[in-house]
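Is this the right way to post structure tokens for a design question? Let me know if I should format differently. Anyway, here goes:
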């Protein structure tokens, strides 16, 4: 017997202005499933999607919030990090509703109005660590250790070729990709130093003078280097970029011109056993009208992905077989962002106008959650 198609459910007390990010929070508690959101009204909101209830709203006092991430480091508890239009990276503790400043993006020796636009436009947690990566309109990439946030200084700073529009970190905690203006994709290798790994792995260290003068493990910075800059395979501005899940063999790129590009990463040493070629496909188009692809999220179990477009639709795809799987939703306005929960059984969708048609009247912002059927995300069997 075929299952009926699940309907999206709107959550109460949604944001009052454009929604910029969605993030499920790992609560280690199956009775609650927390979803955090940020928006242009400057507030972070938390909902419990299990009970479909509003948990809290907290104004971060840094102007509009453009980005958010959460760490999977179990020592940090229920904590999220936000990037503000004022350049700030802030930590928010959901249990205590307290905030703290991690650091700032900022222009150096600038006097022009343009140079002062130093927003922290995108954030990513480095998996299996206490590190947060940030990138901004100041064309800078920073790495922050949230354990040493009192210093307010980044551990690593790298220059980017342009303003940062999107970013993602690989699940193995070794790579970050940043999409910038000028259609550049920048790949950054991010690793702890070998000496830090040796200490953390329990190697014996004698209490001699040489070792006693070395800094403790928590103060040793990670290795971070720009290993590749290349043009996007798409001809128009990048709106979103994501590493494949669970294995980071490639990236998926969404552009403002209603296309998704699939690229492989053999040129930075990531194997491509089946020697697959890059390709692109059209999506989120209605007759002759072309809509931006605002977000891409990979399913945590099956490695398929969903796209959200400014046409108000959410579609799932099997990148390996180059097939469309299912249309999950048609909502009143643009899909600004998406998020799967940890086991991929639920999808959160932000319905929020993204101004692709300029200033005009539009439906109010809403956050929907929807059950995901296995048939909507499971890869298609390809006949050999």
């Amino acid at each position: 017997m075929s299952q009926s198609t699940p309907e999206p459910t709107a959550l109460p007390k949604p944001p009052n202005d454009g929604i910029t990010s969605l993030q499920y929070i790992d609560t280690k508690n199956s009775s609650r499933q927390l979803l955090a959101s940020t928006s242009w009204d400057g507030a972070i909101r938390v909902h419990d999607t299990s009970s479909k209830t509003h948990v809290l709203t907290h104004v971060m006092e840094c102007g509009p919030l453009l980005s958010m991430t959460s760490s999977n480091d179990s020592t940090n508890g229920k904590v999220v990090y936000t990037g503000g239009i004022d350049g700030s990276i802030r930590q928010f503790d959901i249990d205590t509703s307290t905030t703290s400043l991690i650091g700032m993006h900022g222009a150096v020796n600038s006097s022009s109005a343009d140079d002062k636009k130093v927003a922290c436009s995108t954030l990513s947690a480095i998996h299996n660590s206490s590190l947060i990566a940030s990138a901004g309109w100041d064309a800078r990439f920073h790495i922050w250790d949230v354990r040493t946030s009192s210093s307010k200084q980044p551990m690593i700073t790298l220059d980017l070729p342009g303003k940062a529009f999107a970013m993602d970190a690989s699940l193995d905690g070794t790579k970050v990709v940043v999409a910038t203006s000028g259609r550049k994709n920048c790949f950054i290798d991010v690793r702890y130093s070998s000496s830090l790994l040796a200490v953390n792995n329990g190697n014996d260290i004698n209490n001699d003078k040489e070792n006693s003068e070395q800094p403790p493990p928590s103060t040793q910075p990670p290795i971070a280097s720009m290993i590749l800059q290349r043009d996007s395979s798409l001809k128009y501005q990048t709106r979103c970029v994501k590493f494949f899940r669970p294995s980071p063999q490639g990236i998926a790129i969404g552009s403002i011109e209603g296309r998704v590009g699939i690229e492989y990463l053999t040129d930075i040493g990531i194997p491509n056993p089946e020697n697959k070629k890059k390709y692109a496909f059209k999506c989120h188009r209605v007759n002759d009208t072309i809509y931006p692809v605002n977000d891409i999220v990979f399913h945590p179990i099956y490695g398929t992905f969903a796209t959200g477009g400014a046409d108000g639709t959410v579609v799932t795809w099997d990148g390996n077989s180059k097939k469309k799987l299912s249309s999950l939703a048609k909502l009143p306005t643009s899909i600004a962002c998406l998020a799967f929960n940890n086991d991929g059984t639920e999808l959160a969708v932000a319905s929020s106008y993204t101004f692709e048609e300029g200033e005009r009247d539009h439906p109010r912002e809403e956050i929907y959650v929807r059950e995901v059927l296995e048939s909507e995300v499971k890869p298609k069997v390809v006949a050999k």
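Format looks fine. Someone answered above. Worth noting: The mean pLDDT is 87. The first helix runs from residue 194 to 200.
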